[in-house]
Amino acid sequence: MAEKPQPVVVQYCQVCGLPPEYCEFGPEFEKCKPWLIQNAPDLYPDLLKAANANEADKVADQLQSTGISSADSGGSSEAKQEEVKRLPGGKIKKKEKKEVIIEKVVRNKRKCITTVKGLELFGVKLSDASKKLGKKFATGASVVKGPTDKEQIDVQGDISYDIVEFITETWPDVLETSIFFIEDGKKVPAA
Ligand SMILES: [Zn+2]
């Protein structure tokens, strides 16, 4: 009795009806893919790889989202601590002291300039203030960039004797207690 050859089970694609190895030439390869991955992975190793990659992406996404949520809940105290640590440095920068600093600077021996810094902190437009100061003291005044790149007003001549009164009268938001002079490198309250 001759051995019967094992019948070859030809499996046809459930989607397009072609033998699986022909699916990629068929009209609905995209639709075939899921079936092929399930039933003929050996024929299309690339499909399987792609599917695995997708799975890996999904897993990565999930890991990422759980990582975020755990940071939200469990890591909150840690985050707070960091925030507190950061505050002192940030605070100084943010809450710049609102004060006007007036300094008499002598340049080229005889040329005296009175610098006014900080008016902008009180909402004063420096170009406007410069004009007013120049007019009031009948001198030249201009907005210039100071040593720290911050704008200040340079007024020609020594006007420190009555600039405080002028400032407080012209810009009532600037209190006399917020005005300081720099004298011999020291900050001296004007009030
Ligand atoms: Zn097919």
From TrEMBL:
Region (Disordered), start-end ranges: 61-87
GO annotations of cellular component type: cytoplasm; ribonucleoprotein complex; ribosome
Localization (cell): Cytoplasm
Predominant place of localization: cytoplasm
Alphabetic keyword roster: Cytoplasm, Ribonucleoprotein, Ribosomal protein
GO biological process, one term: formation of translation preinitiation complex
Xref: InterPro entries: DENR/SUI1_TIF, DENR_C, DENR_eukaryotes, DENR_N, SUI1, SUI1_dom_sf
Residues covered by the SUI1 domain: 100-171
Composition bias, Polar residues: 62-78
Keyword Manganese: no
Gene Ontology molecular function: mRNA binding; translation initiation factor activity
One family name in Pfam for this protein: DENR_N
Family statement: Belongs to the DENR family.
Record text on subunit structure and interactions: Interacts with the 40S ribosomal subunit.
Comment block on domains: The SUI1 domain may be involved in RNA binding.
PANTHER family: DENSITY-REGULATED PROTEIN HOMOLOG, TRANSLATION MACHINERY-ASSOCIATED PROTEIN 22
The protein's name: Translation machinery-associated protein 22
Biological source species: Hibiscus syriacus
